[in-house]
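in:
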């Protein structure tokens, strides 16, 4: 496609990286990333992916901006309270970079609509706030063979892992099914440090860019855990579970279904 003069100047600090170059920047401009959840994780991920020149960004969210969101969901401003999150996020992304096409989905992902949406994208960022959505994203990405980044935050702790469906550990290899209702508190109950969302969301964006560019080592078969109070990162190495109900040798999950589980896990909201 070739870069014009403005694009060469805009992305110059990336282009001079040997691992990126002009070819890599063109690849980013032709890439498509879907962000599920325009909240604490999706907000920083979306802003930085747009600034970096990812050509198409999809945003899925069914909620409106609430005042309590603003402590961590930095893509939304005070004047956006009461507006649809997808519209607020789209406006900020387009203000940062007119090169970026933003596709919005003002709805909640379900077993009926998720496949049609995610198959249009190269990489998926899971910034959701509940178990049902996380399992649905994992399963849909497996069936559609779409790489994705799972992440979650709660209080002062965050975690993330990158999944290459059919090749690496998936979410169900680690967590077979949602926990019983009430076992894990929500962020509205337990709280969350606002800046934690920025740290983890930007790591998700980093994984997306590495995948799109084909550089570095992805967080595959590895759960990265971060504690903000101790400023400690550690990696837990994982193996694919041969008994995984989705990607194991004898799968019992052969089609998508909506999990009936309203409680959030390590979450962004």
């Amino acid at each position: 496609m070739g870069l014009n003069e403005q694009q060469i100047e805009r992305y110059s600090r990336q282009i001079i990286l040997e691992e990126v170059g002009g070819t890599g920047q063109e690849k980013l401009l032709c890439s498509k990333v879907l962000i599920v959840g325009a909240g604490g994780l999706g907000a920083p991920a979306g802003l930085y992916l747009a600034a970096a020149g990812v050509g198409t960004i999809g945003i899925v969210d069914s909620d409106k901006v609430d005042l309590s969101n603003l402590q961590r969901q930095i893509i939304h401003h005070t004047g956006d309270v009461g507006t649809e999150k997808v519209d607020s996020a789209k406006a900020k992304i387009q203000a940062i970079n007119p090169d970026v096409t933003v596709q919005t989905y003002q709805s909640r992902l379900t077993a009926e609509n998720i496949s049609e949406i995610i198959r249009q994208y190269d990489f998926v960022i899971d910034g959701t706030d509940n178990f049902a959505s996380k399992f649905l994203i994992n399963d849909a990405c497996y069936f559609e063979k779409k790489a994705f980044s799972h992440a979650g935050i709660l209080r002062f702790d965050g975690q993330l892992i990158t999944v290459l469906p059919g090749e690496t550990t998936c979410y169900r290899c680690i967590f077979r099914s949602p926990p019983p209702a009430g076992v894990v508190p929500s962020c509205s109950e337990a709280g969350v440090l606002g800046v934690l969302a920025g740290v983890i969301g930007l790591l998700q964006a980093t994984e997306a860019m590495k995948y799109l560019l084909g550089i570095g080592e992805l967080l595959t078969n590895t759960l990265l855990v971060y504690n903000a109070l101790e400023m400690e990162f550690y990696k837990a190495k994982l193996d694919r579970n041969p008994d995984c109900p989705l990607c194991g040798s004898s799968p019992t999950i052969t089609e998508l279904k909506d999990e009936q589980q309203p409680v959030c896990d390590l979450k962004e909201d």
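note: Confidence is low (pLDDT under 50) at residues 262-269.
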